[in-house]
UniProtKB/TrEMBL annotation:
<dbReference type="InterPro" id="IPR011993">
    <property type="entry name" value="PH-like_dom_sf"/>
</dbReference>
<dbReference type="InterPro" id="IPR001849">
    <property type="entry name" value="PH_domain"/>
</dbReference>
<dbReference type="InterPro" id="IPR026088">
    <property type="entry name" value="Niban-like"/>
</dbReference>
<comment type="similarity">
    <text>Belongs to the Niban family.</text>
</comment>
<dbReference type="InterPro" id="IPR059060">
    <property type="entry name" value="Niban_1/2/3_dom"/>
</dbReference>
<feature type="domain" description="PH">
    <location>
        <begin position="61"/>
        <end position="185"/>
    </location>
</feature>
<feature type="region of interest" description="Disordered">
    <location>
        <begin position="627"/>
        <end position="648"/>
    </location>
</feature>
<dbReference type="Pfam" id="PF26089">
    <property type="entry name" value="PH_Niban2"/>
</dbReference>
<dbReference type="Pfam" id="PF26086">
    <property type="entry name" value="Niban2"/>
</dbReference>
<protein>
    <submittedName>
        <fullName>NIBL1 protein</fullName>
    </submittedName>
</protein>
<feature type="region of interest" description="Disordered">
    <location>
        <begin position="688"/>
        <end position="751"/>
    </location>
</feature>
Length: 751
């Protein structure tokens, strides 16, 4: 009965929060629809991008795959797992590589939105200790987690379950960390920018709801898709109460209480997620149902709606603007240049690094073509280059420039909880600009190939196209960064101004409601118009600061007057054509090659897994895997990978045996993600390449690994990677610890 009451209480409070949010969403939906139709009619585009944009960058490709150890909480043991990161950046964990090749169901599916990647057990313990105040293990007692190696990788979430991994070497830890961070970065950016109505309506509704609770400023948990963000919003309100009511009732040692608390928080989060998805989907469906009628009114009465809104804005401006201008002059204007400089330095260094990495990759490719022979090598290198932007390790030098971003005293003054929002946004822009540059280079080179006479012509053409693309990159990079700086300055200053002005202005806004015609009340909101007026009060200063930085040529920014008009009038037409498949067009594969083999090789663009490498070799012993629909585990073939040792001591013993075994070859066998084969398009994560300053042909007699027969037999679907959520089984079942079990019964899915 107590458990049922608890479930009912959580559902009731979740419903209350979602009810308030859905009211905000419905209001913002009408405003967003009006803005979208008005933009469509009037148009207000900025400078035209010079680089082409690839529509589907990574369809049917795997980002990375390899072996690592996972800690299984249910039996407190470490197991060797085969991890695949598909094109949608989910984490898919299989029992072993053979299970992946045989298309067996994965053990775990993780959507990493909202997670932090930790590489230290101490960092993790600090976060765990702070999550449940008053429950800290005494000195000398065993911590909640022991890692068998010195290279842990922990995925921590404030509400959901945690995931524990470890690898054998520091190099592997850095590689997997870069991969995991890429997954988090991609999954955090889960609200589609292609949606011109639903996305702005949702984000504005979240902001309005939080401001109604006196919560201004940036929010770290605006992560993932709409349902995940709303679940975080609900948990933000539920968690303090859960700590108060459940915390004192937890029994056992401090470590057990911490572990139980994490499981309860995860179970509640799952309950909230399920209810949130149903309620939000219903609200969105209702808005979509009303959309045709609303859009008809907007298109018919557009001029009247605009006139009515401008009349309302003029009245609010007369009331608010004098107060806002004083606030801007005294509290914001003196700090704009400092904030801008703090943003510009690391961001521009990151974009400069993107340019450098792109230049070096193309130049190295050109040198290798000179030494190794023409078009055949070009195909191999172009398939690798085409996915450069999605290479976690090669892009890491660009991303890490943003780690220098520090607002220091400004962060406290403007109530910025964290700079992670700005870091992540800049990194996403870097990846997009890299892919745009690569795709533009690909397209121009592909167009030229039919006109070239030999290797010398090819190399000259590559150099000429590279220079053209770099000029386009410099222009687009400047445009993107200026827009990013303006948006970041607004994100920092507007919430601060709204909070400052709230005591004197917010209470007076209700009197302006009578100025809105009832027929237009769905498209004009007093609160939104008020915020637009506040934005106008500071926008002039922000635009001027960014403009001055460009005039002074700081950080290679172009002046607004620098516009590249029709430099390549037919280029964007080329970008609309069929995507280039270098292997299909130019590889010269024999006709007899089966289509399935070609498709499998193409899918493994980023990582090729070798049968004889990347798996830790333990004592011989067959591992049991439960087949779909089979009630009992079955024994695998004798050639299957041997079972993993259980527990910390078992792994340590295995490591000792490995280290005493084969000397030099140990390092190769302990590497979880192995070097790739030189099959065209086979591995964007390959570290080996010819040095920039000293091009040379490959070492005679050098051995190159060949891809295994089953390297790409199975491509996880969106559902496998946690994009869809498995329904919970009953209203109270979520309070049971969720997760996968070693018996193979079921798959744990993380949203």
């Amino acid at each position: 009965p107590c458990l049922r009451c608890f479930c009912s209480s959580v559902a009731e409070k979740t419903g209350k929060v979602l009810g308030e949010f859905c009211r905000c969403y419905k209001e913002q939906y009408g405003v967003a629809l009006f803005n979208s139709v008005r933009y469509e009619i009037e148009g207000n585009g900025g400078p035209q991008a010079q680089l082409l944009h690839r529509k589907v960058p990574l369809e049917d490709h795997v980002i990375y795959s390899g072996n690592l150890f996972q800690y299984i909480e249910e039996n407190k043991k470490w197991r060797n797992r085969f991890c695949v990161v598909p094109h949608n950046y989910g984490l898919v964990l299989y029992e072993n590589k053979l299970a992946y090749e045989r298309d067996l169901p994965p053990r775990v599916l993780v959507n990493s939105a909202g997670y932090k990647i930790l590489t230290s057990v101490d960092q993790y313990l600090e976060l765990v200790n702070s999550s449940l105040p008053g429950v800290t293990p005494k000195s000398g007692h065993s911590p909640i987690l022991k890692c068998p190696t010195d290279f842990p990788l922990i995925l921590w979430h404030p509400y959901s379950r945690h995931y524990y991994f470890c690898v054998m070497t520091g190099k592997e830890q850095e590689k997997w960390r870069a991969v995991f961070q890429d997954c988090v970065r991609h999954c955090n950016n889960g609200i589609s920018e292609d949606s011109k109505v639903e996305a702005p309506a949702f984000t504005d509704a979240v902001r309005m709801y939080r401001q109604s609770k006196e919560q201004y400023g940036t929010w770290d948990m605006l992560c993932g898709n709409e349902t995940q963000v709303l679940s975080n919003l609900v948990m933000e309100e539920l968690l303090p109460e859960l700590r108060t009511t459940i915390g004192p009732r937890l029994k056992g040692k401090a470590q057990e209480r911490q572990r139980t608390w994490i499981q309860i928080s995860d179970a509640v989060y799952r309950m909230v997620y399920e209810q949130t998805k149903a309620q939000y989907d219903a609200a969105m469906a209702k808005c979509e149902e009303e959309r045709p009628q609303m859009e008809s009114i907007i298109r018919t009465d557009m001029d009247q709606i605009i006139t009515s809104k401008e009349h309302l804005a003029s009245k609010i401006r007369a009331f608010v603007l004098p107060k806002a201008e004083v606030c801007v002059r005294n509290h914001v204007q003196p700090y704009i240049s400092s904030i801008l400089e703090a943003l510009m330095t690391p961001t521009s260094q990151g974009f400069a690094e993107v340019r450098e990495v792109f230049f070096k990759e193309v130049t190295d490719m050109n040198m290798n073509i000179v030494n190794e022979g023409g078009l055949d090598k070009l195909v191999e290198y172009m398939e690798k280059l085409s996915h450069l932007a999605f290479h976690p390790v090669k892009m890491q030098s660009c991303y890490e420039k943003m780690d220098q971003l520090k607002l220091e005293g400004l962060q406290q003054r403007f109530d910025v909880s964290s700079t992670s929002v700005f870091k992540q946004r800049a990194q996403i822009h870097m990846r997009q600009q890299m892919d745009d540059a690569v795709y533009t280079f690909e397209t121009l080179l592909h167009q030229e190939l039919g006109k070239l006479q030999g290797k010398d012509d090819l190399c000259k053409s590559i150099q000429r196209i590279l220079e053209r693309v770099l000029k386009k990159y410099d222009y687009d990079s400047s445009t993107v960064r200026k827009k990013f700086f303006r948006e970041a300055l607004l994100q920092i200053t507007i919430p601060f101004l709204l909070k400052k002005l709230a005591p004197t202005c917010k209470g007076e806004l209700a009197k302006f409601q009578e100025l809105i015609f009832e027929d237009f009340a769905s498209f004009i909101l007093v609160e939104n118009t008020y915020e637009e007026v506040v934005l106008q009060s500071v926008m002039k200063d922000i635009m001027q600061a960014v403009k001055e930085a460009a005039v002074q040529r700081k950080h290679n920014l172009y002046r607004d007057s620098m516009v590249m008009h029709n430099s390549d009038p037919n280029l964007h037409l080329l970008g609309e054509g069929i995507p280039i498949d270098w292997g299909e067009e130019y590889s010269g594969q024999p006709e007899a090659e089966p289509a399935t083999d070609k498709r499998r090789r193409a899918k493994q663009v980023v990582s090729v897994i070798q049968d004889d490498e990347g798996v830790l070799h333990y004592k011989a012993g067959a591992e049991a895997v439960l087949q779909p629909g089979s009630p009992e585990p079955r024994e695998l073939d004798p050639g299957a990978p041997p079972s993993s040792p259980d527990g910390v001591e078992g792994i340590r013993e295995a490591l000792v045996k490995e280290s005493l075994g084969d000397g030099v070859e140990v390092e190769e066998r302990l590497t979880n993600a192995v070097p790739a084969s030189p099959v065209p398009g086979a591995d964007v994560l390959s570290e080996a390449r010819v040095p920039h300053a000293t091009p040379a042909s490959p070492t005679p007699g050098a051995k190159t690994p060949s891809p295994s027969a089953g390297t790409a037999c199975h491509q996880p679907s969106d559902k496998e990677t946690g994009e869809e959520v498995a329904p919970l089984v009953s209203e109270c079942s979520p309070l049971q610890p969720a997760g996968t079990t070693e018996s193979g019964e079921g798959v744990q899915t993380e949203f």
